[in-house]
Specification:
By secondary structure, this protein is an alpha+beta fold. The chain has eight helices and 16 strands. Strand 9 and strand 10 form a beta hairpin.
């Protein structure tokens, strides 16, 4: 097997992320598109076959129940959610489908891996997977090919692909990629890359504590599509132009080792927020994401307060 890859290969070559940490729900029934379109935040009805959309299932008070990518296929929809959230999401959707011809079931024996980086399409193409053609299409476009399912994605701050299929097929593809010289990205380095890219994760940034726009999920809300669960508070927040929190990168001094959950304080706002994710990057430095009060501006200093002590850090926007 190829040696474990450093995080830098995400920008210079290709990295294999396995397992991906996702589950898939298959939605069927004559009302599947209409029903989901009226329940989740994304424009399901406006997504063509072969396309996909980022969406959320919210509570009536607009807290996040599930984050998903919904993929439109000829006779069904694929809903990809965080690992461990498949059964709960399928059950929640089914509870709302009282009079609808709609079913949602977690796909058995389905696994996913990711190939990320500028060489991903070439390396997948060498295995006969049509990644090159898919790379020219819109984000979240997808295609079935033989026993595999391929999706164009952006993850960990770079372009790439998800590959899904049965456990045996994904094991075969993964083994072929590593045999051809594609090195795996360790979970620790993948987490550091996610934090550096400012991407929220389920259970860390994505919780029921904050509204979607406060944790980097604004792109999953389509305000033009019409009704969805939780729409009223979401639109009220948009129209007032006011949120209390935002997701931000927290730049830490060399040698600092805080923990997720440590609180943030500042002279501008004593209760300035908290760290949500912490990891060690390829260079040995600690990287972090936090939810920060909007009253603390870009470039401001904050104190990170936790069991390991107090350190001074700097707030940077996730888009910077």
């Amino acid at each position: 097997m190829a040696p474990e890859m450093s995080g830098s290969a995400l920008s210079t070559g290709a990295a294999l992320l396995a397992p991906l940490g996702k589950e898939m729900i298959v939605a069927r029934g004559a009302d599947r598109v209409r029903f989901l379109h009226g329940v989740v935040t994304g424009d399901v009805a406006g997504t063509p076959q072969g396309g996909g959309v980022h969406a959320l299932l919210l509570t009536p008070k607009a807290h996040v129940l599930s984050e998903m990518r919904i993929f439109v296929r000829e006779n069904e929809l694929y809903l990809v959610v965080a690992a461990g959230q498949g059964a709960e999401t399928a059950a929640a959707l089914s509870r709302y489908a009282v009079m609808d011809d709609f079913t949602a079931e977690v796909a058995p024996d389905f696994q996913m891996i990711a190939m990320l980086g500028p060489d991903a399409a070439t390396r997948l193409g060498a295995l006969g997977l049509p990644a090159g053609a898919l790379a020219e299409k819109n984000l979240w476009s997808h295609v079935g090919t033989g026993d595999a399912w391929l999706v164009r994605v952006e993850q960990l701050g770079v372009a790439g692909f998800w590959i899904g299929g049965s456990a045996s097929e994904i094991a075969r593809v993964g083994a072929a990629l590593t045999a051809a010289g594609t090195a795996p990205l360790s979970p620790a380095l993948a987490e550091a890359a996610r934090i550096a890219a400012g991407e929220p994760a389920w259970g860390q940034e994505i919780t029921d504590e904050f509204f979607p726009m406060e944790i980097g999920l604004g792109d999953a809300i389509d305000y033009r599509k019409g009704c969805f669960l939780g729409q009223e508070p979401i639109v009220r927040i948009r129209d007032r132009g006011h949120t209390n929190w935002r997701l931000a990168r927290i730049a830490l001094p060399e040698g600092a080792r805080p923990d997720a959950g440590d609180r943030l304080e500042s002279d501008l706002k004593p209760k300035a927020g908290k760290l949500t994710s912490v990891a060690t990057g390829p260079d040995g430095r600690t990287v972090a994401l936090g939810v920060v009060h909007v009253g603390v501006p870009e470039g401001a200093s904050v104190r990170v307060v936790g069991a390991s002590g107090i350190v001074t850090a700097t707030v940077h926007e996730t888009s910077s």
